Each structure stands twice: as structure tokens, then as C-alpha cells.
Amino acid sequence: MIFRNPPKLLFYLCLLIVVLLVGYKGYLNFFMKDFAGVHTEQVERIHRDISATEPFSFAVVGNINNSVGIFEERIIPELNASGMDFLVSAGNAVSGGGEDKYRALYGSLSHLNIPYLLTFGAHEYDNFGSFRFYDHFGPHFYSIQAGNSRLIFLDSTGKTPWQWQIRWLDDLLSQDSSNARFLFIGHPPLKPKEDALFDQPEDYLAPSEFRNALMSMVEKHNIDAVFSSNLSLYSEKQLGNTLFVTTGGAGGLVLNDDTSFYHYVRVNVSPAGEITHTLQQLEVGQHPILKRLESFWFFVYSLFYAGYLNFLLIVAVFAAITIKLYSIIFVGKDYYPDYNLDPTPWLEKPLRVAMFTNNYLPFIGGVPISIARLRRGLENLGDKLLVVAPRYKDQPEIEERVLRVPSLLAMGEKREFRLANIFLGRIRKRVRAFHPDIIHLHHPFWLGSLGLFMAHRLKVPAIYTYHTRLEHYAHFVPLPGLIFRNLISHALIKRFANKCDGVIVPTYSTEEYLRMIGVKTPTFVQPTGIEYTRFQTVTDAEIAKLRKALKLNEEKIFISVSRLSNEKNIDFMIDAIGALRQETSRPFHFLMIGEGHQKDRLQDRIRELALEKHITLVGAVPPEDMAVWYRLGDAFLFASKSETQGMVILEAMAAGLPVVAVRSSGIEDVVRQGFNGFKTPERQDQWCAQVRRLLEDDELRNTLSKQALAFAKDFSVEQFASDVREIYATTLALNDKKLSKRRET
Known about the structure:
Largest sheet: 7 strands, parallel
Number of domains: 3
CATH topology of the largest domain: Purple Acid Phosphatase, chain A, domain 2
Radius of gyration: 40 Å
Strand content: 15-25%
CATH class of the largest domain: Alpha Beta
Distance between the termini: 5 Å
Mean pLDDT: 87
CATH superfamily of the largest domain: Metallo-dependent phosphatases
CATH architecture of the largest domain: 4-Layer Sandwich
Number of helices: 26
């Protein structure tokens, strides 16, 4: 039960809080009662309550910023009890122009017992807020008569052309007979004498033409006071007959020092137009040591549109972090395999295995061949297989237990890479009807993702074989190469593998890579099997016939098998063979077996280096004929760095060929230095030196040939299928144990 697990209970509580907060945000945006033209009602109240023959007073606040902690809880109660007649915001009443911010502000202002007017400032304009201000409150610039005084509100954001506002202001004041004149503008026209916190040039009134024109109007029409906000301080400056006040302490970020503090301004106006103003400072934080900490606390408290709710949100986030830390530090983990699992019940009965792969025979490649061999080996052991794979033009007409999926898109020069239509309902229907005990995935995307989805839906374990180093296939992806190589490929493998119940890797170096990127799923090291016995049945007559067909004499033959693609590093071998021709007099010929989109370019490179007599791009060879081609060779050459195992290397060894390869993750565990071949860094001189040794030293080559043959014997298809079957059974036993624990709780 969840109540027996406090961290889990706290997690779901945090999740509930977040859901409620999101729901409340949605309520503010979509269900709260709408409001429009609020200033109309406020102006009517001011006209009704204020007489030209009586004194009146009003409060000016700046940078409310949707504050609950300061404005709503501290300033509003004081204003309601102060006897003042109305409130004016000098700008930045909202923390942003979003609909939720405007609705939250309206909720805060509803606690006022006096009318209020807002200046259209920088924050009101943000996030497309200008039309919300207009709809909810009124025009961006306007003027009202309050008793014997004129209050003018201008738009300093650039939304309204300043030239139009200056002309309007001049016309308005030329006909005005008020005893007192007040102007409110969000951006300060003057810089304060004090240093402003984090101020930027855009915090002040711009452009300079607007500022100069406004200052001329202030002087020309004898405006008594100009109020602005946008800076987190209080500053006043007398210029001629005009008082300039910058006020920004009604809820925004302040330092709680002599300049930057929480406050509002009280303005008193007599019937004769005499003006006095009083700074009303809020006492926030008395202890000198805690003064700045309290300021920061109130900043956090009032940072968002609703302080209490966002305080809870912050608490929920930190609680989630606490739970994570708790699970990391205090919850014991066992990183070793569960040795108490008993796979025997599953080993003693036939298994039903569904495999999902993005490529399969007749497409020739390491993955399709590996799958075909595993399928054949498992079927020989009595298991039932269903392979879900793309459809190909030249596939067999009748295939048992293979579900061919038509393609949405075919890529590559010969359309060899196919994007199967994973959206077909019949795929899911066929897999369900098959009733698999386990699902085996051979790629971490597309059909592999569909297979993982089916495994979760059918509640059966999913096994993933990590065949391919995706980061070396960045050139196939229409994204910046480094982004795919360094981020997406590793993240994709990690995410997919951790959703599976087990991962099969061909080498220990590959297992280390998965652990380094964060894969926590149980991992099984299982090299791919080869048809070892087939290589031993090749006759001398078959070899002689092939040699004659290729018009080869007594020269030594180097073999390589690879798709002709960038990640296989074929250029490196061609260039190295060119260098080798200059270093040795022993005759040799290099046969490069395989097809690919780079074939024409590689042939041009061979022609450019005048190596047509020494290198042949053979093209594709049917799988059933490959054993003879391997046996034709004297050594196997390889330079790919994208392999996870290099199955062709084991096949070459099964044919008695010593190997020279470039060091990489798939090579390190297969090629044993000086025993069955040589592995070098990706340096042409070192690689050529080892190839030359095998070419010129017959005794060394024969010794390594025998040792390579003995090494390959342990990798038969039969042993491979038996080992994978045990992995299946172990995973099924682990899955059954997990299900039993869940039933108990």
C-alpha cells in the first residue's frame, strides 16, 4: 500500500499540489468572471466622491508586480484605513502581461475599498499584454478630472506613438484650467540621484526625442508632479516648479536599504491646488543580519501572480527534490544480479518470442543476419518465433512466422533503409494473437518503439539487443551532427534501454558504455553467433573455382566485408592500401565485399590513386556464398569504428583469417593482440605496419590463422541460441518475481 511508503506518499502529495495549482491557473484563465472597462467605473466613483471645493488625497504606488505578500497583505489594509480617496499605480502593477496575471491583479484590487487607476507600464505591455490592459481596464493613455486637479496618464512603452501623445497632451492642457496637474508615466524621464538596483538603459523613458518633448510640455504647462515607476527605489527630484518622483516599492524586488525599500506615496491636494506629499515606508525586516534575507524572502513570496500558491509550488518542488535525495542516500540498492532467480520453469517449455526489427533479410547487414541466425537457432530448440520487419521488394513470397510491414518511406541510394508503417492496426492484432512470452527488440526506435509499447500493453518482458552505435550514424540524420552524436543518440539509447527488462550486448566494452550513459536495466553480455561449421565445409575446389573466376594469380588476398557507408571508414583502408603498395614488393589484392550509397565515390577514389589492379569493390554477395569468399582470403582487414561487436570479424576467424582492425568498442573484446590478429589506433602507419607483417611473414600468418580458427569455435549459432534462451528465461523469472512483490503490496 502507498501509506506504507512515506516517500511515495509524499511524492503523490507533491503531484496533487502541482495538479491543483495548474487547475487553479486554468480557473483564473478560463472560468473566473470576466471584467472589462474597469477604469470607467473607477472614474465615476472618483467624480462622485471628490468635490472641487474640498481637499482630497490619493496614494501612488509603483511596481506592485502582483505582490500578495506586500501589496495585498500590507499596503491595501493601510490604504483602506487611511481615509485616502483613491489609489494610482504608476506602472508595473502586474509581473507580466499574461491573462492570469491580469486576473490575479484584479482579484487583489478587489480588496480595496477605494477607487483605483492604473498606468500602462512595461510589465503591462509584456507578453502581448497591451490588448488585455485595453480590454480589462481601458485606453493606454487617458486623462481624468479629480476635483480641482487634472490627472494625466501616458504610455511610455512605445505601443502608442509618442508624437501623437505629445500633441494630445499639448491640446489638452492648453484648454485646462485645473489648479493642480499630475502626470503618470511608467518609465522615469530623469535618472535618480541614487544608484538604482540592476537598472538598464531601457528602464528609462526613450527615445530621447520623446523625453525632450515631454520635459518641454511639463515646463510649458506647469505640471506640478510627475510620477513614474520601473525602478526598485524611492527617489524625488525638483526641477523648476515640477516634482519628479520615482516610486518602486509596492511589491517588487527591493534591497531594504536607505534607497530601495517597500513604500507608497501619499499626496494631499487642497482646493486651491496646494500639494504636499508624504513617503509612507513599510517596516519590513528589523534585525540587521536578517534584513537582506527577509527582503529576498518577500521577493520570492511575491514573485509570482499568487504568492501563497506559488509558495506551495516552491515547497512542492523542493519536496520532490528531497524525495529524490532520500532515495539516493538512504534507500539501499543492490547493484548485483539476483542470483536467487530460477529460470528452470521457462527453460523446460517452448517459448513464444516476438522480434521487432527495422531491417531484415533480404536486406544484407549485420543485424538482419544476426536475427536470422538467432531465429533459426531458437526454432531448432523448439521455440516459436514471430518476426515483425519491413517489407522488401525481393523478399520470399512465402514466409512463416514473419509479419512484413509496408513502408511509409524508403531511404538510401537503393532504398535499402525502410520506415515501416507502424500505425497499422493489424500489427498489434497479429502480435496479440501470437501471445508472446517475451518480446525481443533490435532497434531503439520506430518498430522497436512499437515493440516496447506492445510489451507494456501485453504485460510481457521486453529484451533489447544493442546492435549499433547510433552516434556514428549522425550523417544519416537531418540534424546538426554534433547534436545527434553527443546528445540525442546517447539519450535515446539510455531512455529506451531503461524502459526494457533486459539488454543484450555483444561485448564487455559495450556494457561499460551503457553503464556510463546511465543504463540501469540488467545487462547480459552475449556475442552474436556465427555458422562455424559452414566455414569448415568449404572445399578446395570451391576456393579454386572462385579464384579462377576473379582472375587471381598467386598474390595474397585481403578480405573485408562491410556496407559501403561513411561510418565504416572505407576511405582509411583505401588510402592505407595505397601507402602499402609503396612499401612492399609482395603482390596482394584487396577484395572489398558489400554494397552501399558510397560505392561510386569510393570507386572514384580507387581510380584516383591508381589502385584498380589492387582493390576490387566486389558488391553484394549472397549470404550462402560468403563462406567461400572468406576462405579465399589470407587475412581480414577492418577499419570501422561503429561496431558493437563486429560479427564479420568472427566469421573471418571461423575461416581461419587473422585480423587487422582499428581499435574501437566492438573490436576490443574480439581481436586479441598478437593471438588472432592485431588492433591499432586509427593511424595509417601503424595499421599498414601490421598488414605488412601478415603479408610478408608466412609463419606468423599461419600461426595466427590457426589461433583465430580456435577462437571462433566458441561462437557457434547453436551456442548463441542456447545462451539467449537462458537470458529470456532469466528475464521471465525476474519479471515473475516483480509481479509477485506487487501483488503482495
